[in-house]
């Protein structure tokens, strides 16, 4: 979906296909047929943006077989879909029964991460619509915080610098300008936007910036205005923003609130949980740890890294951090000029919701994703953007 900003530029809105896990190119093509096109039809649009997630094997198949890449582009066009952004965070296995810490491997200190992201950039340069010259890729924020020493930090810095050089060369070769955004996430080396400032200014290249995920922003209790002001002051480019909402518990000390939270403690994904105390931010790596005894102070609200559907906040006594998303979006695209032109709804946890809230069929999932995109569209038009055909 495309929108015209009052300044005349185009803002792209997509939804991320990591909600439909697939490890192979055949699986990606099936996603387009079984999920993405039905969502587009529900929205009544001739064109729908998708943020593709390409696992290692799928990306490698595309970059080594020009005919396969042409075939994917043809399939996108045939189904009324377009790609201006990729989700390069998960490497492989995102559809496994247990993902948890695996999603952070390989990290930016490992050569595999550079190789994979280079493949993604080469693929995206060929998938961009003919009238679009700028693409974006989000990636993990360097590494999970443990076992990340100075040697690995140096290796990661070198890898990202090398990537920037490759993106410059790709621009010269194709005319397509691609940028990479580190996506701050609780528990990682770069947990907050503030944590991103030092490594990104050290790299000092405008092709390496940040991806602002509004669920992660909220989970870490970051104020959107403060965070975005700091990025602007440091001249860190906002490559893209993922529109998402976290799980919020206002009164975590109450038994009924803990019982409601326990329904979201599931075995597949990591749900980092945070609370803001007088002494600063406190947290656990997973929701289950927070619920076990006194691992996390419960005198103040808790937020958990659980991407809940944008249009359907959890039932009381829980809610979502949709207000943080609204505030961030107002700053991102509500000013005289957009701070980013790429927006992506990323609710990959539909099948991890409590059983009674999960979609039971493809049609229900398509309905839910279409409802999320409708909410995002309404937020954009309320900010003065005009939806384009």
Summarize the structure.
The chain has 389 residues and is an alpha/beta fold. 40% of the residues lie in helices and 20% in strands.
The geometry reads as globular
Q: Work out the oligomeric state of the chains in this entry.
A: single chain
Residue runs with pLDDT of under 50 for 5 or more positions: none
End-to-end Cα distance, whole Å, is: 8 Å
Strand order within the widest sheet? 2-3-4-5-6-7-8-14
Fold and architecture overview:
By secondary structure, this protein is α/β, with parallel strands linked by helices. The protein has helices at 25-43, 56-64, 66-78, 111-127, 150-174, 193-203, 214-219, 224-233, 255-262, 287-291, 322-333, 362-382; strands at 2-4, 10-16, 48-53, 81-87, 134-139, 177-182, 208-213, 238-243, 245-249, 273-277, 280-284, 302-308, 318-320, 342-345, 386-387. The protein has an 8-stranded parallel beta barrel with strand order 2-3-4-5-6-7-8-14, surrounded by 7 helices. It has a 5-stranded antiparallel sheet with strand order 11-10-12-9-13. Helix 1 (25-43) links the parallel strand 2 (10-16) and strand 3 (48-53). It is globular. The protein starts with a strand and ends with a strand. The model has no long low-confidence stretch (mean pLDDT 97).
């Amino acid at each position: 979906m495309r929108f015209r900003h009052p300044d005349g530029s185009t803002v792209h809105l997509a939804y991320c296909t990591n909600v439909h896990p697939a490890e192979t190119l055949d699986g990606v093509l099936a996603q387009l047929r079984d999920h993405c096109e039905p969502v587009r039809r529900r929205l009544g649009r001739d064109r729908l943006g998708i943020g593709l997630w390409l696992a290692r094997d799928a990306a490698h198949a595309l970059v080594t077989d020009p005919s396969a890449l042409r075939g994917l582009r043809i399939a996108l066009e045939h189904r009324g879909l377009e790609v201006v952004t990729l989700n390069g965070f998960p490497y492989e296995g995102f559809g496994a029964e247990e993902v948890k810490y695996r999603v952070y491997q390989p990290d930016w200190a490992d050569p595999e991460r550079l190789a994979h992201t280079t493949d993604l950039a080469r693929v995206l340069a060929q998938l961009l619509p003919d009238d679009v010259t700028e693409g974006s890729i989000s990636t993990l924020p360097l590494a999970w915080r443990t076992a990340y020493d100075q040697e690995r930090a140096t290796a990661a810095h070198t890898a990202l610098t090398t990537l920037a050089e490759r993106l410059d060369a790709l621009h010269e070769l194709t005319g397509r300008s691609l940028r990479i955004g580190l996506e701050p996430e609780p528990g990682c080396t770069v947990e907050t936007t503030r944590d991103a400032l030092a490594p990104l200014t050290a790299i000092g290249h405008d092709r390496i910036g940040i991806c602002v995920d509004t669920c992660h922003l909220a989970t870490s209790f970051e104020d959107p205005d403060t965070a975005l002001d700091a990025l602007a002051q440091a001249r860190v480019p906002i490559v893209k923003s993922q529109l998402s909402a976290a799980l919020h518990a206002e009164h975590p000390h109450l038994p009924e609130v803990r019982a409601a939270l326990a329904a979201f403690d599931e075995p597949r994904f990591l749900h980092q949980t945070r609370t803001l105390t007088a002494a600063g931010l406190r947290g656990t790596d997973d929701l289950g740890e927070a619920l076990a005894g006194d691992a996390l102070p419960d005198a103040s609200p808790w937020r958990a890294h659980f991407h809940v559907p944008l249009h359907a906040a959890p039932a009381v006594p829980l809610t979502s951090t949709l207000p943080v998303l609204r505030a961030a979006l107002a700053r991102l695209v509500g000013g005289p000029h957009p701070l980013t032109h790429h927006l992506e709804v990323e609710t990959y946890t539909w099948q991890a919701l409590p059983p009674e809230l999960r979609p039971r069929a493809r049609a229900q999932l398509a309905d839910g994703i279409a409802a999320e995109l409708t909410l995002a569209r309404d937020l954009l038009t309320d900010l003065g953007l005009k939806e384009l055909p």
